[in-house]
Amino acid sequence: MMMYQTFPKVELHLHLDGSMRIQTACELLQLKEEIVKKKMEAPISCDSLTDYLQVFDLPISLLQTKENLTRVTKELGEDLKQDGVIYAEVRFCPLLHIQKGLTPQEVIEAVLEGISKAPVKMNLILCMMRHFSLEQNQMIIKLAQQYHLPLDLAGDEAKYPTEHFSSLFSEINQYHIPFTIHAGESGNIDSLQAAFSFQAKRIGHGIQVVNSEALLQEADQQKVHFEICPTSNIQTKAVSSYEKHPIAQLYKMGYSLSVNTDNRTVSHITLSEEYEKLAHTFHWNQEDFKKINFNAIDVAFLNEEEKEKLKAIIKAV
Ligand SMILES: [Zn+2]
What we know:
Shape: globular
Strand order of the largest sheet: 1-2-3-4
CATH topology: TIM Barrel
Largest sheet: 4 strands, parallel
Bound molecules: zinc ion
Low-confidence stretches: none
CATH class: Alpha Beta
Number of domains: 1
Number of strands: 8
CATH superfamily: Metal-dependent hydrolases
């Protein structure tokens, strides 16, 4: 019997705001848990991704001071440790945290301080947002250069199609900034086509790829890695049930993929629980979980030495 909690896990797709502890929000707001829970956890099934994105309003409103940004990041690190995660890439959009006067630099430095205090190795990814102006997203590119951080594009894929961001990604490629991109989550396959045309090596979700033979081939040729978040996909109605999730199909076909929670609080899930569900639904065993963690390490935003260290921990299980 595999112990999911103690198995050393790597998580590549994890949003800071969507993973803030309920108890911390209760304390900061002086409100009861049942009230805060309703505002921070998405229902088992939302009407759409647009609906799901609303639960981020409350944590974002609280993450407007250095103190809270550092605390919540450090606490996330503690939760990851508890969950048996040995390395995580945490993403967030710095420009969503300047409502009370912090500069974007102060925001990033507060989160980096939280990372330095966390008991687990974590790296940061900066999210550009689909609803932002070109100038705002260009500012995030500048910040990524300044702090040597990788990038992501997040937000509502249905309202703001991936194809509209080609000039942004030409810039990113020109500066050789590593990136991942949310695509093919709820949107149509054109979104993935666009992400592939930006030379993305990592795609957040990407599950719509199974609906196109041509895209499956392209993903194979470009050796694209899919950061899969099964529970999140069911909540946003991108997939109707765990049994019907394309992760098993993609895995069987040999694609590189990782398993992630996306948002621990919003989806009320740990990575151990996600592994357990996969094991029950698709009969994945320890060897399967080792394989997906090696896949994750191969594409992690780390140097070769750091990757070898993580692989050695998993090999030793
Ligand atoms: Zn995400």
